[in-house]
Amino acid sequence: MAAQRSKRACCYLRPAQSGCQRVIRTNLRYHRPDSLAAASDLLWSHRQDIAVLGGGTHLLPRMTRDQESVSHIVDLKALGLDGVNISANGVSIGSRVTYDQVLRHDALTRILPLLARVSHGVTGGRQVRNIGTLGGSACFAMPGSDMPGALVGLRSRFRIHGPTGFREVDSTDFFTSAFVNALEPGEFLHSFDILDIPTATGYHKIKHSAGSWPIATATAALWEGQRLEITLGGVQETPVRIDVTKVADQPEEFAAAIDAAITEPWDDVLAPGSYRRRVAAAAAKRALSELRRRVA
Length: 296
What we know:
The chain has helices at 36-45, 59-64, 99-104, 106-111, 113-120, 125-131, 134-140, 146-153, 171-174, 251-261, 273-295; strands at 4-9, 13-16, 19-22, 28-33, 50-53, 72-75, 84-87, 90-94, 157-162, 165-170, 175-177, 180-181, 188-194, 200-206, 216-223, 227-233, 240-243.
């Protein structure tokens, strides 16, 4: 087995007037494997009691609030998953690529402007853009998050590594329910492959304030200059992709197609499902309008 770093950390500490205050309250063993096989071995050996550390913007706050408790943390930083490869076969994006890396990658933003559009407006602002990763957002599978819907809207394929090697999953199959993904014990997300590049895209999200999670997101994509698709995020537990080619120029039929696709609206503290359903068509219409401006 390849060498790896491993150390024990009792907790994270922060200064307080009365001394040090515990933040993460469990004994943690930190692992930093240097090969894909070693990472999968760790995840398999400690299944049910281990978490993968991406940017940490979801995991660490949950651990400080005692919403998640594990004894082992696996940091994938040494595995080279923070690169972008653009070739004649499409685009491959490592799961540890951050929003800021997307914004600073000129070729990527030119080929897939949707990713830059989403990354720039991600909830949390500059701090999250600097350390939050596309893969971490996808794996957390939060319904009211920008990236799941955008990745489904781009017809992404997810490359997963596990104890037996690689397998691929379509983005529509990766998100199985709210906060649940298709990863099996011992597996981690390696990269995203976008093999087909859309002719044009548009994006819109509705939220209460700049720092709020989205109530609804809509990704519009035009494929081969003909097929129009809308992908909704935040309105159900998982993103939903809709073919609107035949109704895109018919406002009433377009709104009806969007409404019909929402079979189980998502409720949370930010908005009831009934409200998300009502605003979905408006978000979709604005995403489609942005796409058409880009085509023009």
